[in-house]
Specification:
heterodimer; A: alpha/beta; 2 domains; 6-stranded mixed β-sheet; 3-stranded antiparallel β-sheet; 12 helices; globular; B: Rossmann fold; FAD/NAD(P)-binding domain; 5-stranded parallel β-sheet; about 30% helix
Chain lengths: ~325, ~675
């Protein structure tokens, strides 16, 4: 069970350490069900930390997003660690970043928070609309306890669980330096109903399904920016020479953008669902990613973000790899 | 120089190879109207002297600074035309080829469509030619030494040739003695020379040659570096015998408690040896070796009241504490001559090799007829009271060759002739015996082969065309069930001895060398040469050459010829002392590289490593290409997520316009 006291104590101790730059955790947001990241540098900020079904966002994105500032001549680069609170899915992002050498093991301190599944923010806001003051939510037995301004409400877990959590197989951090509380039992079986449903349609139907979705994309790049695995300093899709995709927002360029992003995530997507969560147009981007996750798992028996010592999927080869799809 | 592209396009007829299917006139007319094209011509043979002169004249007179040749595959003539450009002082990498032969005229029939395709291919090449950049080749020094892996006849011959030319050779042999498969043979076809008599002088030469360092009972463990500069680690396995003290007297072997109880590899299991042994009498070096997998002392830590070999050795050469030793050497070239394994006859259960003692392989018969073999050259089967001399002898050819059911589609090239030779030897030693050969075809293609085959038939060996379907036992006899396909009659043939003419297979440990040297295999699983006709001893890895049966089945003359070819190829490298490294290699944009290391894993040549660089005061990792190792395959570039590693002449911004015009985008 969530032990907030322990979380706060660990956080205080952590930021007091000389070799820690800051701690990234979650705090209550300014309205409704929203939370925001807390970049904690002082021990007294510990009281702001929370861990609840509201902590949807994957904070691992901030590890690679942090800019490496130029170091003045004569000065030493800041090599202090960044402490990071992670759920199970978030921890896989950290592991995958380690596999890809996006971060170094000694530069990160992972604080593991076993998780019982977070809220689908859209559903909960739909169920309880028009709430402006911050709301506290807790896990109960197979239910969420939602402390609305006019008193607590209990909602069955299945009703409000986020899509990515419905079939979660890794609720416990797969890697951590500190584990805050007892691990929970995984409930998922790794089957993707949305992918299966789409796979059963013919290619024409699938194509029009996606064309319909990509048509509405506004190319804000929120999906790319929120993705913990999208962290090239100079994204190949931003370049002008050669210009792989044009700036214009049309169905052709949008399709190329989403397919290119999906293919760049093959064997790397750890299914945290951030791209889909942040999409202002509600594109089912995880369906695309999950399809590729499934292909990689079925064909090559490979899952990213589990073992920091493993080789990256796209650059590993076994003589018995399937290749029947090559014409 | 004004670098505004001025392109010359040259469309080749290739006699009628291209002109028959493609309207070359129309293609050059089309090309002349493309942007930046100054001249466009067509000519019967662009690769001929007058053809090249055409290009040179235009470069001089028209001031061309880019050349597009539309002809055959760049595999054929890219080097030719690069030289043409270089002769005029133009950078040779301002050349782009459009392959309108292999990619067009040879694979199409419709002249109109083929012409349209040729136009597109030329347009595409022109689109890229505009964006070409000059490239420069580098040179590296060559270490004047060679590593030869494998001490069979191929390795021996290659080592001797290189050593005689005055260069250092490290000859590594896995087993305790050089000699290889040839040393196991009795006579050689078609001349019937005694195999050992012609081989042993060369074995002795190898051991005594001042330029050859013989590393017998050793294995290559690690190879790094690149053409001209390989660094090699060889594991000299412990013999548990001090070779400096061992006189080769053999008393130890006689005294060994296991003497005569371990199947002898040299005798193909037909005879036995001791745990301390010399593989065969003429072994080089003539030093004894203790088999670490059999010796009681080494496996159990005790041998009776004390090892008898140690007590018997007057020289005090036995040393159970000996350890493996690592020898390091630097070489400029490597010759792989690792040989073959014979087909495992047990994979053809219908021939009963595992079930009946009187079904043997040709290599086993070879040891029986050999004077140095377990029976002193007498064809006697069985032991003691069961010993008998066969009267009815049958050979079955193509066992494990030309046989899809066992995965070997190829012809092993030697079985027809060694079968004839062995049939002859059986007739010679047992004149009363009836010898017949069951065959599919007889392939007697070499010098003196057909004559020898004729001679053997005249000596009374019967050739029956038909592959036996089954061998079973009836009383004392083996019965061969077959069909004589020339007479269309079924046969049941009762014989005393069946000899299976087993084929040649890649060594079962072939993978080791592949991993060490990043070699490729052809479909038959033998090592793949760079070009089957024009670079038969080269491999895809520069500075690594193939000799002998590791590349494919061969008889002794072919093996020796190829070994000499490999030696000569290595000598070209060594004697020139310098090697050019390619210009079309990868390079890294260190500013955008994020150091993920995908390219490092992907590179089949081990040419990329991660290095730490200072990026505005922060130490970050980026990829770096070893230019001497890079072969320009482009795998890294395809695998890079951020597009930070690119291949010169094949950069994204050069290829994309090329693709764009193919798709009709102007």
């Amino acid at each position: 069970m969530v032990d907030l006291e322990k979380l706060k104590n660990v956080a205080k101790d952590t930021v007091s350490r000389e070799d820690v730059k800051y701690l990234i955790g979650w705090r209550q947001g300014t309205y409704g069900f929203r939370v925001s990241p807390l970049f904690m540098t002082e021990p007294e900020d510990a009281d702001k930390l929370i861990f609840s079904p509201l902590c949807v966002n994957n904070l691992a994105t901030y590890l690679t997003l942090a800019e490496k500032l130029p170091v003045p001549r004569g000065a030493e680069p800041d090599t202090r660690k960044v402490a990071l609170m992670v759920k199970g899915c978030d921890s896989r992002a950290v592991v995958q970043q380690l596999i890809e050498k996006g971060i170094e093991r000694e530069s990160v301190l992972v604080i593991g928070c076993p998780c019982q599944g977070v809220l689908d923010l859209e559903k909960v806001e739909e169920k309880f609309p028009g709430i402006h003051s911050p709301v506290d939510v807790q896990w109960g037995d197979d239910k969420f306890i939602i402390n609305l301004p006019d008193g607590p409400q209990e909602v069955p877990r299945e009703e409000l669980l986020a899509k990515k959590c419905l079939n979660c197989r890794y609720p416990n951090p797969v890697m951590s330096d500190v584990m805050l509380w007892e691990e929970v039992e995984a409930w998922g079986n790794g089957e993707y109903a949305d992918v299966k449903e789409l796979e059963e349609k013919d290619s024409q139907a699938r194509w029009s399904f996606w064309q319909d979705k990509f048509e509405s994309c506004i190319r804000c790049y929120a999906c790319r920016n929120a993705c913990p695995m999208c962290y090239c300093e100079d994204c190949v899709l931003d370049r002008l020479n050669p210009q792989w995709i044009y700036r214009s927002n049309n169905i052709s360029e949008n399709t190329v953008f989403h397919l290119a992003r999906a293919f760049h995530l093959v064997g790397r997507c750890i299914e945290c669902g951030e791209c889909e969560r942040v999409c202002p147009m509600g594109l089912p981007l995880m369906t695309l990613n999950r399809k590729l996750v499934k292909e990689v798992r079925d064909k090559y028996d490979f899952e990213p973000g589990l073992d920091p010592e493993s080789k990256p999927f796209q650059s590993s080869y076994r003589p018995d790899d399937q290749e029947d799809f090559i014409l | 120089m004004n670098n505004k592209p001025k392109i010359g396009v040259y469309v080749c007829h290739c006699g009628i190879n291209i002109a028959k299917t493609v309207d070359v006139e129309a293609v050059s007319e089309f090309a002349s109207r493309l942007p930046n094209v100054k001249v466009a011509r067509n000519y019967s043979y662009m690769c001929s002297d007058p053809g090249q002169l055409l290009i040179r004249e235009d470069i001089k007179n028209e001031g061309l600074n880019r050349v597009v040749v539309a002809s055959c595959s760049p595999r054929m003539h890219e080097m030719t035309f690069r030289k043409t450009l270089a002769e005029t002082g133009l950078n040779p990498y301002y050349l782009e080829m459009a392959n309108i032969r292999e990619h067009c005229s040879w694979v199409h029939e419709d002249r109109e469509e083929a012409t349209e395709k040729a136009k597109k291919l030329v347009f595409s090449a022109v689109a890229k030619a505009r964006l070409l950049e000059p490239l420069y080749e580098n040179e590296v020094e060559v270490e004047p030494a060679t590593l030869v892996i494998g001490g069979g006849i191929a390795g021996i011959q290659a080592a001797l040739d290189i050593a005689d030319a005055g260069f250092k050779v490290y000859l590594v042999e896995k087993t305790p003695s050089v000699g290889g498969r040839m040393s196991q043979l009795d006579k050689t076809f078609p001349t019937l020379d005694c195999s050992a008599c012609i081989l042993t002088p060369k074995m002795v030469d190898v051991a005594s040659h001042p330029n050859i360092e013989l590393l017998a009972y050793s294995e290559v463990e690690e190879i790094s570096g690149y053409v001209g500069n390989f660094e090699v680690k060889v594991r000299k396995k412990a013999r548990y015998v001090d070779v400096n003290k061992c006189t080769g007297c053999g008393v130890c072997s006689e005294e060994c408690r296991l003497a005569g109880r371990i199947p002898s590899e040299f005798n193909a299991g037909m005879g036995n040896r001791a745990a301390i042994y010399l593989p065969f009498p003429q072994a080089v070096p003539a030093k004894y070796t203790i088999d670490p997998e059999r010796c009681l002392m080494l496996t159990r830590g005790k041998c009776g009241k004390g090892p008898k070999c140690e007590a018997a050795c007057a020289a005090g050469a036995i040393d159970f504490n000996q350890k493996d030793e690592i020898v390091e050497c630097k070489v400029g070239a490597i010759i792989v001559a690792t040989g073959f394994d014979v087909f495992d006859a047990a994979k053809k259960p219908e021939y009963g090799y595992n079930d009946y003692d009187n079904v043997i392989t040709a290599l086993e018969l070879e040891r029986l007829v050999s004077a140095s073999g377990p029976t002193g050259g007498n064809i006697v089967l069985g032991k003691g009271e069961d010993a008998f001399v066969p009267q009815e002898v049958a050979f079955i050819s193509c066992v494990g060759s030309r046989d899809k059911s066992v995965g070997n589609e190829y012809c092993s090239r030697v079985c027809c002739m060694y079968t004839a030779k062995l049939a002859h030897l059986v007739k010679e030693k047992l004149p009363e015996a009836n010898v017949r050969v069951y065959y599919m075809d007889v392939r007697a293609f070499g010098k003196g082969f057909e004559e020898f085959y004729d001679r053997v038939r005249r000596e009374g060996v019967r050739y029956i065309r038909g592959n036996p379907s089954e061998i079973f036992k009836r009383g004392d006899k083996l019965v061969i069930k077959a069909e004589d396909t020339l007479r269309s009659t079924p046969i049941e043939d009762e014989v005393d001895l069946v000899v299976l003419a087993v084929g040649l297979e890649p060594r079962r440990d072939a993978r080791q060398i592949i991993d060490l040297l990043r070699l490729s295999q052809s479909a038959d699983r033998f090592y793949l040469e760079a070009h089957p006709k024009l670079a038969p001893v080269n491999t895809a890895t520069d500075g690594v050459f193939l000799a002998g049966c590791s590349q494919g089945p061969k008889d002794i003359p072919d093996t020796v010829a190829q070994a000499k070819g490999a030696a000569s190829s290595a000598l070209v490298l060594l004697s020139s002392g310098k090697v050019k490294i390619g210009a079309q290699i990868s390079f890294v944009n260190e500013a955008t590289c994020r150091g993920c290391g995908y390219c490092v894993e992907i590179c089949p040549y081990g040419a990329i490593e991660l290095v730490t660089v200072n990026r505005m005061g922060n130490m970050v990792q980026v990829a770096r290409v070893n230019e001497a190792l890079c072969k320009g395959c482009g795998a890294c570039s395809a695998g890079c997520l951020s597009g930070s590693i690119q291949q010169k002449s094949f950069m994204d911004r050069q290829i994309l316009p090329q693709i764009a015009v193919l798709g009709g985008v102007k």
